[in-house]
Each structure stands twice: as C-alpha cells, then as structure tokens.
Specification:
By secondary structure, the protein is α/β, with parallel strands linked by helices. Helix content is about 40%, strand content about 20%. The chain has a nine-stranded mixed beta sheet with strand order 1-2-3-5-4-6-7-8-9, with helices on both faces. Helix 5 crosses helix 6. The chain starts with a helix and ends in a 6-residue tail after the last strand. The model has no long low-confidence stretch (mean pLDDT about 90).
Length: about 290
Amino acid sequence: PEAWQKLRDGWREALVEKSFAGWPDEPGALDVKEAFTVEKEGLRFSVYDFTSQGPIRLRLYLTQPVDLEKPKLAVLGVLDEEDWRSFVAMMRCGFDDEIKSEPSEAAGELPEPDEPLFQQFRKMQQEGECVMAFIAPRGIGPTAWNPSEKKQTQIRRRFMLLGQTLDGMRVWDVRRAIQAVRSLDAAKDVPLVLQGERQAAGIALYASLFEPDVQRLDLQDLSRTHRDGPILLNVRRYLDIPQTVAMALERSEIVIYQPGEEGWDYPQDVAHVLDWGDERLSILQPPEEP
C-alpha cells in the first residue's frame, strides 16, 4: 500500500503540474441559473446554465420522472459530438420546441427525431428512480465551433500555445458540471454515476480523479492508450490510461464496455494485490442499440 500511495501521488502531482497546468487557479462561482423547466410525456426536463471558466458558460440538461420525489441515483452523461446529436434526436420526440430553441448545431441542421431511442430512455427513467444529467463540454453542441478540419486544427494548436489542450479543458468542464449537478436539490445527497463513450469516456475518467464522490464510472469504448486520445499535454511521460484507471478504481467502481476483455491487466492486478475487491472493475460487452 505504501508503494502504491507514493506512485499514485507522484502521478497526480505530475498531472496537475504538467498536464492540467492551464486550469484556473481560482475556479470562481458556478453561478448556476435555471433556463427553463417543462413537463411532458411523464418527464420533467430542466436546463441550467453554469460558469465553467471565466466567460465560458455551459448548459446542463436534467431529466427525471414527473412524480419522482426522492431519486436514488444521479447519472451525469458526458457527451461527445456523436452523443450530442443522439441526445438532440432523442429529446426532439418529447421536447421538440425546447430543443429547437437551443443555441446549438453550429455544424448543421438538427438530426431527425429518434422515437425508439426516446421511448427506451423514457422507460428507463420511469423504472430507474434516477435523475439523468447531460453535459456537452466546450466546443460540442451549443458551443460548437467552425466544423472544418482546418479550423479545428487551428483551435487545438491555440490551446497548446496557452499551455493546455482542448481535451484538458474539457476535463475541467466536466469537473464543473459535477459540481453544478451536486448543487441542485434533486442530486445533492444521492450516489453519482459518471458516464462517457469514446473520447468522452477518457475525459470523464480524468475528471473523476479530481472530484470527491463519484461512486461509479460507466465507460464505453475507452481508449487503452493516449495514442488514441484523449490528448493531454505530457501525459505519456508519466502514465497511460491503464494507470489512470487504477487511480480512479481506488476511488470509484468502474464498468468498461468493450468487445473482449483485454487491455486492463494493470488495474485488475493493482485491485487484486491491494485487496480492493476483484469485482470493483467490470469489463462487459457493449449494450445493444435500440
């Protein structure tokens, strides 16, 4: 245990000083403000704006059953661009007017409504007794930039000139979203689950290292190495994603959804040797699409 603590603390210090040095020294007030709340299809759909960093305001989307008095769980989904479009297509089925009024889709037209996905989501909400929250970090959905590959490359280079990467700042955005969720009455005193797919899975993973009470991480198609993203400054000089999973595993249960089981021997061995429980990390087949 002593050797692990020394190793873990060294990695964490390196992340703070070498990978996330561009994070604000003072986080500032969240200034969470409700944009609107509507009730349709047995669901309550609420939207909140909060401050992530300086002038950057992001939107937090919250859904729950209308008649749910005391949630048993809060789930925060971290959206990438693909997930954002799925979220919009899903929510258009019950809340089309509200979605159309959103300052979003800089990349093009709204996706077509996805009725099967909405009905699956609605059923899950009614049966799950949970609050679902969604965050699109900067540059995705409502804050999307020019979608051309040339412009996206220029934006990523500008972040690096400032001693940061876009993915590094998205980790900060998710940290602030966790704090915003925790500030709402519906999610103050219940277990919190953090979800993400693809690059958003890696961003959620890193955010969990710096927030105190993430009970579980649900990560789908998580990269096995930073060579496949997310892109963080200097990170592979010190550790790679399997080591980060081990750090997170000490604090949270983790479920990784992927074909096959390979790639996670390191965190499994750490959990076994330090007697955290072999069931703390689960590797499962991806859930079927509706």
